[in-house]
Amino acid sequence: MLYSSSLRRLAQVTQVVAADVSHVFHNRLTHSFQVAQVGRRLAERLLATYANEVAASDGLDPDVVEAACYARDLGHPPFGHIAEEELNALAGDDIDGFEGNAQSFRIITKLSQHSPFHKGLDLTRATLAGILKYPWYRGERSEKTNKWGAYRSEATDFEFAQQLSGTGEPTLEAKLMDWADDITYSVHDVDDFYRAHRIPLHLLADRMYNQGREVFFEAAFRRHSQKDELWADRQSLKESFNEVIVGLFPLNGPYGGTWEERASLRQFSSQLIGRYIGETGLQIRDGRCKLKRDDHVLREVAPAP
Fold first, then answer.
1. Residue 149 · residue 133 · CB < 8 Å
2. First CA to last CA across the chain, in angstroms?
3. What are the structural domain ranges in the chain?
4. Which of the listed residues 5, 185, 252, 294 has the most CB atoms within 10 Å of its CB?
5. Do 291 and 280 contact (CB within 8 A), yes or no?
6. CATH class for the region spanning 5-162
7. 3-state secondary structure of 104
8. Cα–Cα nearest to 180, from 288, 299, 15, 70
9. Euclidean distance between CA atoms 298 and 279, whole angstroms
10. Residues 43-101 pLDDT 10s
């Protein structure tokens, strides 16, 4: 995976701002490395802390989690989900549309070059299954009509991967890959938005800046008014924001790039990532390990779906 040209290409795919603008911001390549590190540490900690639960279920492999984290963004185009939607519209129904996760699966199973004797990266069944955040074809899930994990052109590899769990649901490794991604971009995108002067976290962290904080909250809720149940609980989200930003954000002025500011931001990011890794657990349900996270952790990481 590390030697794939598709992985190197992600250096030119942006996260928050253009990769070559002013300060050094995260791009999809650096994001993938960070997700892989967080994913591996999550898996290693869970193996050490919940050894009995893992032994009683279908297992957990940190190598698989790490590989899935590296692979997850390979098929995502520049300009994010807007470009993904435009490509899907252009592709139409004749070729099964376009979806970034399905394109990632196509890259690792067919388009990447690893050996002259076969196409793709020749990954294990567990790794292929670990990449499938959405283990279904286009149109098979009414609740996720705009998301799917594979094109039917990769049906052989998809069915091979699916035989591992046999449930039609993501494996534990796939769920850890997805959770590692949520943790990483929730923490590092906040870092980038502050550095790029897009969000004045120093003001929002000011205990005296109540009116400005309420304006920020209302804008966020208005933008995500149609989102899931997590976004509907406005008061709890406000409390979670205050706990992280008001309680932990270390700087009291706009970002200027000083050594002290960079060091403080690194410490802030490390503190949050350690917090979310440490508060991730496992529980056995129907003979399988499921991720266990308290509501306050889910609110703090809360992605905008």
1. yes
2. 27
3. 5-162, 174-301
4. 185
5. yes
6. mainly alpha
7. helix
8. 70
9. 10
10. 999 999 999 999 888 889 999 999 999 999 999 888 777 888 888 889 887 788 999 99
